[in-house]
Each structure stands twice: as C-alpha cells, then as structure tokens.
Specification:
Layout (H helix, E strand, L loop, with lengths): L4 H8 L3 H9 L6 H14 L5 H8 L4 E6 L6 H15 L3 E6 L4 H12 L4 E5 L5 H10 L2 E4 L8 E4 L1 H15 L3 E5 L6 H17 L2 E5 L6 H6 L1 H6 L4 E4 L2 H13 L9 E6 L12 E4 L2 H17 L8 E4 L2 E3 L10
Parallel strand pairs: 1-2, 1-3, 3-4, 4-5, 5-11, 6-7, 6-8, 8-9, 9-10
Antiparallel strand pairs: 10-12
Helix pairs in contact: 1-2, 1-3, 2-3, 5-13, 6-7, 8-9
C-alpha cells in the first residue's frame, strides 16, 4: 500500500498538518521538527501527491519546455539534460515543438503558462519584445539565447569560434566562409559577430554566405553559393548544414577537405560517424539543459530577486578529418 501523510506523521511523532507544512512550507516549521519529518518521509519512501501539494502551494510541479525543431539532433541532448535535472528537482517536463515559427512559440507559451510553474525556451526564434511578452505569462528561462535581463544558459560562441579560426589560419587558410543560419536565429547572429571579431584579430578575410535553413537541406542549398565564394575553408551554422554541404560536394566529385575545409558547430553524434568525420565546435548540450533548470529553480524560489543570472558554458573545437591545408 502507498505510504500516506498519516504514516509519516505517526513515524515522526507529529500531526499530519505539521507534516504537510514541513513539506510544503518548510521555513515556518521548527528545524528539528522539520528534520524529523523529512527523515521519516525518506525512510518510509513517502512521495507527496502532486495535485494535493499544488492546492497548498499554488505550484503545479511542472515545467514547460519549447524547442524550435525536435528533428534537429542538437536538441535531444539538451532535452535530456533538462529532464534529468528537473527530475532531481521533483519537476515534470511538458515538451512542445514550435516548428521554427516565432508565432507558434508565443502561442505555446500562452497555452503552457496555465499548466506549469515556469517555461524554458530553448533557442527561441522570438524577438526580444516577444520574449518580454512571454515572460509576462510565466517565469521564463532561456537556453542558448540572451535577451535583456532574462535568466539564460549560454555557450561561449566567441571563444570557440576564435579557436576554430586559429585552427584554420594555422593550416594556411586566409579566406574563410560562414554559412549562416536563419535570419531569425539569435545564435546565427552571435556566431557571425564572433567570427567577424576572430578574423579581424588575425587579419584574414571572412566571406558571409547567405542565410539558410538550419537543416541538412540548408547545407545542400548553400553549396553553390559556397563554391562561388572562392573560399578555401567554411564554417557552417551547425553540423547538419555541414553534412548537407559535404554530401552535395561529394556527389559532384569535390573532395573535402582537399578542395574545401569544413567546420560545423554542435558536435551532434552523427558528426563522428560520417566519412570524413566532421571537425566541429562542441557545444555542451546536456549541461546547457541542466543549467537552465537550475536557473528556473532559482527563479521560482526568489521571483522578486533583482539580479537574473546568465551563465556561459565553455565550448571546444574537436578536430577530425574535414580540415587540412588549402590547395592554394
């Protein structure tokens, strides 16, 4: 039979109402009593009823998570980190896919806000104004996006892309391309700014190559523009685009890296499985997810706090087999 609150009360030598307060409002319970209740609950394996607890605390015990594209292999590891950390914090996660559409994102925020305590927006495509609107519906934490003072779990694009540029320059490349992602992607804009600074520091040329869908097909579509740019090396917005570009080049008899060096970003699992294996900038995807939940728990614990932390996680260049010295 399931352990009840009365069982815990009996084991701890207190009333059921004291157990309820110790679990839902621990600050108002004497520390020694609270410790006795928690120890009894742990020994008996008691798990409070989420719905009943919600009536007392006004909390649902749920978090919302919105991602732009579940088919993109970047996001499953972020989701895995979010779910693991949320589970440790005793939260369930409701997951939604916005299909890369900002209008759908804000609609999902409105729908989820009444069912969850807070919403994590992973790589949102919304504008800053729309993100401020979203934060009016529910507490919001951003993953892989910075916007104003909203709490955010970020990655060091600038440091990682400096490392990528330094690697290419050491090989002898002097004209480097960047195949950008969607115009609505904050990450794409951040990576472009980071690359501009990195090439300026070493006095090489950066060629900006369009805006393309952040998918395998986007890399396919970018092939002609990349070849026309006459670069000897290219960095793509993500690994999926790099893989699409490499396959299309191979189908035309153009060798990578002999004819063109290619670097992706993300280090999705496929990147090490293809031939040639992809040189890429590793993003700590699972850690991004875990930190997002930590920030949400902190936000929910002190919603009136004036400072909203934005934590930046390190990236690292993984050199494999798609970069080499240029032909010319």
């Amino acid at each position: 039979m399931a352990v009840t609150i009365r069982d815990v009360a009996k084991a701890a030598g207190v009333s059921a109402s004291t157990v309820s307060r110790a679990l839902s409002q621990p600050d108002i319970v004497d520390p020694c009593t609270r410790e006795r209740v928690l120890k009894a609950a742990d020994q008996l394996g008691y798990r409070p009823n989420r719905a009943a607890r919600g009536l007392i605390t006004g909390r649902t015990g749920n978090l919302g998570l919105i991602v732009p594209d579940l088919a993109n292999p970047f996001f499953p590891m972020v989701i895995k980190g979010i779910q693991a950390q949320a589970r440790d914090a005793d939260y369930a996660v409701f997951l939604a896919d916005s299909d890369e559409k900002p209008a759908i994102e804000i609609g999902l925020v409105r729908a989820l806000a009444v069912q969850v305590d807070g919403i994590i927006l992973c790589s949102p495509r919304m504008s800053d104004a729309e993100l401020r609107e979203a934060a009016g519906y529910a507490p919001v934490v951003l993953a892989n996006r910075r916007s104003g003072l909203l709490p955010a779990s970020l990655v060091d694009n600038a440091g990682g892309l400096r490392e990528a540029v330094d690697h290419l320059v050491a090989l002898g490349h002097r004209r480097i391309g960047f195949v950008a992602g969607p115009r609505s992607s904050w990450s794409s804009g951040e990576r472009l700014r980071a690359l501009r600074a990195a090439v300026d520091a070493v006095r090489v040329e950066l060629v900006e190559i369009g805006n393309f869908a952040p998918q395998f097909e986007g890399g396919v579509a970018a092939t002609d523009a990349t070849l026309a740019s006459d670069v000897t090396a290219v960095i793509t917005y993500n690994d999926l685009m790099a893989l699409g570009l490499i396959q299309t080049l191979a189908s035309r008899g153009i060798e990578v890296p002999r004819r063109l060096s290619v670097i992706g970003i993300d280090d999705i699992p496929t990147s090490s499985m293809v031939h040639p294996s992809l040189t890429t900038l590793r993003i700590p995807k699972e850690q991004v997810g875990r930190v997002s939940v930590d920030l949400m728990v902190q936000l929910l614990g002190d919603p009136q706090a004036h400072s909203r932390p934005q934590r930046e996680l390190p990236t690292r260049l993984i050199v494999r087999n798609t970069t080499t010295v240029p032909l010319h």
